[in-house]
Structure formats: C-alpha cells, structure tokens
What we know:
Layout: H1 6-26, H2 28-31, H3 36-61, H4 67-100, H5 105-125, E1 132-134, E2 140-142, H6 145-171, H7 180-195, H8 202-221, H9 233-244, E3 250-258, H10 261-268, H11 270-288, E4 292-298, E5 301-306, H12 311-331, E6 340-348, H13 354-375
Antiparallel strand pairs: 1-2, 3-5, 3-6, 4-5
Amino acid sequence: MGTINYVSIFTANLLSVLLGFVLLIGNSWRWKRNDRENVLLVFMLTLVMLTCITEPLAFYLDGRPGPYYRIIIFVCDTFTFAANLMASASWLMFLVYHLKGSISRFHAALINTLVAAGLLTLFINLFYPVVFMIDASNSYHRYFTYYIFLAVDVFMLMDSFVTYLIIRLKGRRLKFFFFWVYSIPVLLGALIQSSTFGLSMIAPCMMISLTGLMSTIQNEMIFKDKLTGLYNRYYLDQLEEELKRDSDGTYTFLMIDINDFKSINDSFGHQTGDQAIVNTANILKKAVGSQGAAIRYAGDEFVVVLSTRNKIDTDVFIANIKTGFDNFNKTANVGYELHASMGYDVVNLRESTMDEVMNHIDKLMYEDKTRYYKTHAAKNRRRVDGLQNS
C-alpha cells in the first residue's frame, strides 16, 4: 500500500467544491425551473459537491484511533458509495429525458432496481461488511463487492452511451448533444482511482464532467426557442451544414401552421395564444420523439425534420401528430380547439438549399390550409381578407 498525499487530495476536492458553487450561482436561473432535467442536474451537482467533502475527510481520518473517528469514516465512505451510484443513475436518466423527452418503464425500472440493490447492499454493510470494512485500527479495506459497485457505475455509463448511440442513429444527424464531455472524465477518474491507492479522482472528475455538461447545455440554448423549448430557426442554419455532410443527405421536412390562430389571439388574448403555441409544440415533441427534430420556425409556424425518407414512416408520424391534436381537443377543455395544416416532402439537402426546401414545403402547407378552409367554412370568414393572417 502506498502513501497518501493529503495536500493533493484536499486541493483537488476543494477546487471541485468551489467549481460546484460557481456552477450553482452561475446557473441559479436554471434551478428555479422545476422540470425533470434541472432537478436531476441539481441532484447530481449536490451529490458530487458533498462527495468532494466526505471522501477527503474519510482519507484524512483513515487509521486514526477513536470511536468517533470510526463512525465518521464509516458514514463518509458509505455516503461516497451511495452518491457515486445515484449520480451515475441520475446522469443516465438525464440523458434519456434530454434526448427523448421520456423514459420507458423498463428502462426506469432497471435503473431504480440497480440503485435500490446498491443502497440495500450498503445498508447490509453497516452490520455485515460486504463492500468495505473499517478494521480495529480504523483503517479502510475494500471487499470484492466494491468492484461490483464500480461495474454497475460503468454499466450505467455504457447504457447511456448505447442510448445516445441509438438516438443518434435513429435521428441520424439531428441531435447536437456532446455525450463525451461527461463520460470520458468520469470514466478516467474511476479507472485511475480504482487502480491507484491514495488518489481521490472520481468526484473531481465528475465535477469536471458536470462543468462540461453545463457548458454543452448552455450552448444548446442558442438553438432553443424560449417560449416552447423547441429548436429555433437558427438551428436550421446549423442543421443545413450538418446534414450536407451526410453521405446521403435525404430527410423528410414538414411545415406545420396552426389554423385560425388569429382568432385564438383575438378571442382569448395573446397569453392564451402563447399557450396554444406551447401546446402545439408539446404535441409535436411527443409525436416526433427521438426520431426527428421539432422547430419553431416563426410565430405559429413549425418545421419538423424526420430522419426517415420512407413515405409510409412519414405517414405514421403525420398520423401521430393529428392524433395528438385530436386528443388535445377532446381532453384539454381550454375553450378553443387546435387544428393545423401541413405540407411535407422528402428532400436531399445535397441538391437543395434550406431556403429552397422551406419555400417548397411552405407552398405545400398553404395548399393544405386552403383545403382545410374550404371544408371549414365557418372558420373561413377572414380568408377573403387574407389567408396569411391565419
């Protein structure tokens, strides 16, 4: 067993705690948004900051005699194991929610089962050492089960990689999230600390990963519409360059416009109109899932980019969108109904510019809108004054 450099351990973890406080203060606006992703981010950051305190303390007190030191060492080491496990699970769930918007029951059950089993094992370890022990001289010793905990952490990291890869393949180049900024530092920290005695690397490396993750999310905000959370028009400019590098470059583009939107604004006010836009965005996000990108193009106009070039698959997506509107109209009870016109086509961006694609599907969408108003005469009173206002 080698020696422990307490100065390096405390320095690395102190800097990590300070970095955590900077992230908390710099992202204070984010913590006020009580959605799943932000809750998971706050939870991860809190766990890592506490681990940066408990792990160095356990290192420092290791081998010091006294019953109180023994209790503190046991509590600190137990918390460190639990925190690493829960942080790994939180990262996996964050990734799934961020890229897919929801998590399957099986996936959630798997993650919860692993966490519950780990916490139960740590509870058993309080009475019967199976993960680690503190001997009579208050020295820490690992058991083989330690490596099972490490394997579970690595498994969840690999699970997140497979999930990310599947989503990337389904959506092809439609997602910009950088998976590696979180995973590589965490993996390196775990491998180094597990193989080298006297180093505290996992928690500081997790803090580095969280810093990279926050930076990536902040960069994504450039491409996000503030009202709806969908991608914005600027995203299309970036997407054009990305898709043109695709070996094929063929995607399905949809233009979607809310019918009779002006009457919602006139009758209920602009705040309700904004909520109608948000409701439409939620319908599109649910229908598209991880196999495309939904974009707020302008006002009440939306663009959906699908990774498919197959008409049958496209028809399924369109049916899902229409079903989403139908379900909303049946259950929302908001005083108005949502209907939309759509125009779509399969295009190759290696042969067309984004402006040409937008003009093309916009024309197809207005043809669909014309058909809609012909069959909904009661909602067509203003059409003579200009279809463009709808």
